[in-house]
UniProtKB/TrEMBL annotation:
Pfam families hit by this protein: Cu-oxidase (PF00394), Cu-oxidase_2 (PF07731), Cu-oxidase_3 (PF07732)
Subcellular location: Secreted, Extracellular space, Apoplast
Note describing how the cofactor binds: Binds 4 Cu cations per monomer.
Signal sequence annotation: none
Enzyme nomenclature, EC number: 1.10.3.2
UniProt KW Transit peptide keyword: no
The keyword Repeat appears for this protein: yes
Protein name (database record): Laccase
Keywords associated with the record: Apoplast, Copper, Glycoprotein, Lignin degradation, Metal-binding, Oxidoreductase, Repeat, Secreted
Length: 585
């Protein structure tokens, strides 16, 4: 289990009030039981590293030379200070996916939204406090497609002395699903944006960076989870893949899902989970009571609803029981190997049933504070479209056009300076327009026969909200260029998923079946293919907050927008001033 070896840890895992001086492993200080929140310091040196998978060696952008990147660990209430220094030629930003960033939007990370990127040779200190959150989140680059290799777990432990609302697991293991491309992913997306066609798909999926034995030239790069019988393991699942929702299962074992996007849920059992890019989930794995004289594969492969080409391969890791007999006669090689059966690639009914099982814990200690009263209702369409090809050219998108994607037919145009800075300094003119529509301008049968005109509009439009507005947002998939499931991610907030369905949303009938009692609370939700999802959230966090499809190709095509939440009246309802080292564009 190479990914776990502490020997290779180049990151500072330094805890305490004194700060660190260099990138060396500093060790863990013992903290008194009743210690208050502390500040934890990390150093992220962005540098190139040669990595070989599937017999292809390439130079990838990494944090501290590690792939996947280092774990960041904090307790609820702690402050994190992560100094990111860019030693590569690409511009870099890092996003702390799922962290609410209360009043600290400057540390959120999306390029040209909350900050200008960190340029070569420059540093930026991401400085934020983890408030009211505990569970598994993750960090990733938030510029172009660099998150292909720049990602890692962000683990928030409960406050000292606060137990999980389930039996304490014997061990905790992050499982990050990713995508491996033999080619350079920056070249793939820049070429695709030029030609207008769909980008090349990945060559493999990975578990903790390893593709596993089902690919050519890959058996030695297999993630192995060695377990003891009769124990409970907490798997901290993260889908860091660029473009694919994934099914995941472990042969002959039942999984108990206990949390989604770092919020506890009512536990339920399942053989298979579905996890979209951006989502995280804690699941319990109970190992067999007796040594099973078998080994078991854990596998993941995509759930696909779109019409384009995709990587239909399967990543596998191995669940191996430690033999109770020392120098056992059994070599694991000789043991039978069981393989899980995953749902069909397009199994939308599995997706629907799975998402219906996700319910908030809604206990006294962990209540579901879903807004019952709604101040503002919004209806956005999400989906693909086209833009025209440059003159005298044929592009490789539909009918010689270029692929595009949009929210309410507005394909987001990335500005050349950061939205949050433009807002804070009162210089938004020419950067963004504060007039994102509350519903699309053109109404049509969103999930019926697509309209003849598939051309999207363009703009950098923000939806402006007063502080503490309670929001209901319905996101409606469109069938323009084919219905497709879109994992929508909202920065700065968790939201409650109060309803979902297929076809066109009916504003009279559908709200009657909304769940306002125990809806799941999360930061990324799959808009069902050819359907809609309704979410609610309280806009209690001033700042500019990005919302986008977490399929990176759709983000690149413009399926993104931003919310601007204004300051409240009280001093503690205002965005904090920008840090002095905030990068300049
Ligand atoms: Cu995980 Cu805006 O992203």
């Amino acid at each position: 289990m190479r990914w776990w070896s502490a020997g290779s840890a180049a990151t500072v895992v330094m805890v305490g009030r004194k700060c660190c001086s260099d990138g060396a492993f500093m060790g863990l200080f013992l903290i008194p039981q009743h210690a208050l929140a502390i500040t934890r310091h990390y150093e992220f040196n962005i540098k190139m590293q040669n990595v070989t998978r599937l017999c292809h060696t390439k130079s990838i952008v990494t944090v501290n030379g590690q792939f996947p990147g280092p774990r960041v660990v904090a307790r609820e209430g702690d402050r994190l200070q992560i100094k990111v220094t860019n030693h590569v030629s690409n511009n870099i930003t890092i996003h702390w996916h799922g962290i609410r960033q209360l009043r600290t939007g400057w540390a959120d990370g999306p390029a040209y939204v909350t900050q200008c990127p960190i340029q070569t040779g420059q540093s930026y200190l991401y400085n934020f406090t983890v408030v009211g959150q505990r569970g598994t989140l993750w960090w990733h680059a938030h510029i172009s497609w660099l998150r292909a290799t720049l990602y890692g777990p962000l683990i928030i432990l409960p406050k000292k002395g606060v137990p999980y609302p389930f039996a304490k697991p014997y061990k905790e293991v992050p499982i990050i699903l990713g995508e491996w491309f033999n080619a350079d992913t920056e070249a793939i997306i820049s070429q695709a944006l030029q030609t207008g066609g769909g980008p090349n798909v990945s060559d493999a999926y990975t578990i903790n960076g390893l593709p596993g034995p089902l690919y050519n030239c890959s058996a030695k790069d297999t993630f192995k989870l060695r377990v003891k019988p009769g124990k409970t393991y907490l798997l901290r699942m993260i889908n860091a893949a660029l473009n694919d929702e994934l099914f995941f299962s472990i042969a002959n074992h039942t999984l108990t899902v206990v949390d989604a996007d770092a919020i506890y849920i009512k536990p339920f059992e399942t053989d298979t989970i579905l996890i979209t890019p951006g989502q995280t989930s804690n699941i319990l794995l109970k190992t067999k009571l007796n040594y099973p004289t078998a080994t078991f594969l854990m596998t993941a492969r995509p759930y696909v609803t779109g019409q384009g080409t995709f990587d239909n391969s399967t990543v596998a890791g191995i669940l191996e029981y430690e033999s109770p007999v020392l120098h056992s006669v059994f070599s694991t090689k000789k043991l039978p190997l069981y393989k899980p059966i995953l749902p069909p690639l397009n199994d939308t009914s599995f997706a629907t049933n799975f998402s219906k099982k996700l319910r908030s814990l809604a206990s006294t200690q962990y209540p579901a504070n879903v807004p019952h009263r709604v101040d503002k209702k919004f209806f956005f369409t999400v989906g693909l479209g086209t833009t025209s090809c440059d003159q005298n050219q044929t592009c490789q998108g539909p009918n010689g056009t270029k692929f595009a994607a949009s929210v309410s037919n507005i394909s987001y145009v990335q500005p050349t300076t950061a939205l949050l800075q433009a807002h804070y300094t009162g210089q938004s003119g020419g950067v963004y327009d504060p007039d994102f529509p509350i519903s699309p301008f053109d109404w049509f049968n969103y999930t019926g026969n697509p309209p003849n005109n598939t051309v999207v509009g363009n703009g950098t439009k923000l939806m402006v909200l007063k502080f503490n507005t309670s929001v209901e947002l319905v996101m409606q998939d469109t069938s323009i260029l084919g219905a497709e499931s879109h994992p929508l991610h909202l920065h700065g907030f968790n939201f409650f998923v109060v309803g979902q369905g297929f076809g066109n949303y009916d504003p009279i009938k559908d709200p009657k079946s909304f769940n306002l009692v125990d809806p799941v609370e999360r930061n990324t939700v799959g808009v069902p293919s050819g359907g809609w999802v309704a979410i609610r959230f309280l806009a209690d966090n001033p700042g500019v907050w990005f919302m986008h499809c977490h399929l990176e190709v759709h983000t690149s095509w413009g399926l993104k927008m931003a919310w601007l939440v204004l300051d409240g009246k009280l001093p503690n309802q205002k965005l904090l001033p920008p840090p002095s080292d905030l990068p300049k564009c």
